[in-house]
Design brief:
With 311 residues, the chain is mainly alpha-helical. It contains ten helices and no strands. It has helices spanning 4-30, 32-35, 40-67, 75-108, 117-144, 170-203, 211-244, 254-261, 263-274, 277-304. Helix 7 runs antiparallel to helix 8 (254-261). It is globular, with a radius of gyration of 24 Å. The termini are far apart.
Length: 311
Amino acid sequence: MVYTIEFSLGLIFEIQAIAISIIIFLYFLQNPRIRLKRHHYSWLALLTLNFFKLILDLPIALNFYYQEKLWPESYIFCTLWVWLDFSLSCATLYLTVWISIERHLIIFHSPTLFEGRWQKWIFRIVPIIICLIVPPILYFNLIVIPPQCTNIWDSQTLLCGPPCYSFTGFYGIFDFIFNICAPLLITIFVNLMLIIRVIKGKVSRQQAIEWRHHRKMILQFSAITVLQLAFSSPLVTVSFIQMTVMPSFMADQYSTLEYIFYYMPLLLPATCLCGIPELVKKIYGFIFNRRTNTVTAGKIPSARQKPANSF
């Protein structure tokens, strides 16, 4: 098996990512007051979207690395897999952009902006719905019913090779710019502006900005943003160079960059968990208390054992 290391590492990270995601979901289900905080809506939507990628998209990729080809080999299966992968990845980028903007609104605007029935719909529900609905519809038209071309899939290639619209000029450029590059650049810009405003506010000691109150939220999503940029930027940069300057640039390493990109959803649950110190303490307490009880129970018989030379 050529992809032994890729498959083994991917499987290990897949198991831990699914387990951590389930633990986080159970934690919020058992604490409804925490779940209803306004900045958790989009955050939980992102984690839920990532969970669907873990259980629907990544197992197909792992099977590809295990068998060194796609199974089952069919045009319909390739089409659905590519549509699912592109839709989930694009929706994740959209949600990341919205969460970045939402943090600005929460930190630098009045809390009344999110109060009221219509404000809740506009600033909580509607953006999330748009982020989740637009990508599947867009890629359904580009991949499932492609305009002006016919997909030719290769079962020996990850994701069956690129869809045909990426070679048709306008559609490929439009998708790359507006669905990949633009969300990444907007996320970088918005987060840089947030950092600048927070530092400026702390230096000028503006009490209107409650840094301690928002610090956890800022650090948590900053870690998520760094994770996303770290694993997506290399692939996007190489793709941009191939499309504009040198088509053969890092062609032999492109499959490796595609594999690295999968670690973004694999590491996202652990990154989110680090931003929930209450849950981390419970997990550590459960693990170490259980180990302590096990060790103590193992020592009880020896402590009560009567010496052999005693009467």
